[in-house]
Design a protein that fits this description.
This protein folds into 2 domains: about 10-230, Type I PLP-dependent aspartate aminotransferase-like (Major domain) (Aspartate Aminotransferase, domain 2, 3-Layer(aba) Sandwich); about 235-349, Alpha-Beta Complex (Aspartate Aminotransferase, domain 1). Helices cover about 40% and strands about 15% of the residues. The protein has 13 helices and 12 strands. The protein has helices at about 10-25, 30-45, 55-65, 85-90, 110-115, 135-140, 190-200, 220-230, 235-255, 280-290, 305-310, 315-320, 335-349, and strands spanning about 50, 75, 95-100, 120-125, 145-150, 155, 160, 170, 185-190, 265, 275, 325. The strands form 3 sheets. A 7-stranded mixed beta sheet has the order 1-9-8-5-4-2-3, sandwiched between helices. Strands 7-6-10 form a 3-stranded antiparallel beta sheet, with no helix packed on it. Pyridoxal-5'-phosphate (PLP) binds near residues 81, 172 and 185. Pyridoxal-5'-phosphate (PLP) binds near residues 81, 150, 151 and 174.
Length: about 350
């Protein structure tokens, strides 16, 4: 048997929704996109949502809406999806990297504080792997925060949904994300002027003036699939927790589970189950997993500071050298779960 790291959970609901859109003969941006925008924004307690073509596009448009221009500094973690670096570069900003906390993999407010200066114009705060971080402390710095819930929609901080904290929030609907629809993203905000700006910028056609614009629209076909996935969000999280319960019996005594499930104010959606072994590196664990038939992944392909050849990100280095993501997805079958459990037992012995 080979257990994949992830497999999407599509069934007759997504199939019927996609079929209905095709049957309607209207597959471009339309009523399904508007419905998705409404559902997601309501879910994260924001007044407005604007759907776009990807999470990266959502980040770029969020930065543009904050008026980020050449030379502005944007603080982002090093231990994150490289999309954040690309988004900052796309608006000619300067990405300033900060380290993560040891327990939560998320931006360390202390390191962020050290990196703030008069050129700092925004902070992008991704809640990595579904585990929310200390965003409330980041907000106290008084700098605009883009809250990135690409991996964390469904998680909560002090019982409030992630995505409700940032001045702007962004989500991704990439195929392997919590809500997977192929590609897609959205910007969520309470600020109507930001909504008008992004809605105008995302489509170039039939305008009365000539300003630079792009095509960053989502299609109704994508939105229809995303809506069906969204309806299952809580069911997906429940399934992930039921798998974790089984893993924990083995993981707790032997392996280090950095997800600090003890901290009840930060509730993960368990998008990823991140583990590290006391004596084995991530590379070793991935090799052993491959031989056994369990696909393990590094949760971040490579920290950004390593591409840049800079140092002094000790927590990020430790996480990258030691952490792996083990399969935990809603479509996991019982025999796959038990196979992973037998693997986890095996790597300890
Ligand atoms: C935290 C985070 N932000 C942004 C993105 C970018 O999303 P997309 O792949 O939809 O462009 C990702 C995707 O991998 C992500 O993990």
């Amino acid at each position: 048997m080979i257990v994949p790291h992830y497999r999407p959970s599509f069934n007759r609901h997504e199939q019927a929704a996609a079929r209905a859109v095709i049957k309607s003969q209207y597959i471009a941006q339309g009523s399904k996109v508007r419905k998705l925008e409404q559902l997601i924004s309501e879910y994260v307690n924001k007044k407005f949502g604007v759907a776009v073509s990807s999470g990266t596009t959502a980040l770029i448009l969020a930065l543009k809406a904050l008026n980020i221009i050449e030379g502005d500094e944007i603080i982002i973690p090093s231990y994150t999806c490289i999309a954040l670096w690309h988004a900052v570069k796309a608006v000619d900003g300067i990405p300033i990297l900060a380290d993560i906390e040891t327990d939560f993999y998320n931006l360390d407010p202390e390191d962020v504080k050290r990196k703030i200066n008069p050129n700092t114009k925004a902070i992008i705060f991704p809640h990595m792997f579904g585990q929310p971080g200390r965003i409330t402390e980041i907000l106290e710095f008084g700098i605009p925060v883009i809250e990135d819930i690409a991996q964390a929609i469904g998680a909560t901080v002090d019982e409030k949904p992630v995505g409700s904290f940032g001045h702007l929030s962004v989500v991704s609907f990439y195929a392997t994300k919590v809500i997977g629809a192929g590609e897609g993203g959205a910007i969520l905000t309470n600020d109507e002027s930001i909504v008008s700006y992004i809605k105008d910028f995302r489509e170039y056609d039939e305008k009365n003036d000539l300003k630079p614009r792009v095509n960053a629209k989502m299609s109704d076909l994508t939105a229809a699939v995303a809506i069906e996935q969204f309806k299952k969000l809580e069911q997906f999280t429940r399934k992930r927790y039921s798998i974790l319960k089984l893993y924990k019996q083995i993981l707790e005594p032997y392996l280090n589970i950095p997800q600090n499930l003890k901290n009840s104010s930060l509730i993960s959606n368990l998008y990823r189950c991140i583990v590290s072994h006391p004596h084995k590196s991530a590379d070793e664990l991935i090799d052993i997993g491959a031989k056994y038939g369990v696909t393990l992944r590094r949760p971040v392909f490579q920290p950004i500071h390593r591409y840049l050849g800079i140092t002094k990100f000790p927590n990020t280095d430790f996480a990258w050298e030691r952490q792996v993501s083990i399969p935990i997805f809603p479509d996991m079958k019982d025999d796959e779960i038990h196979f992973v459990i037998s693997f986890l037992k095996n790597i300890h012995s």
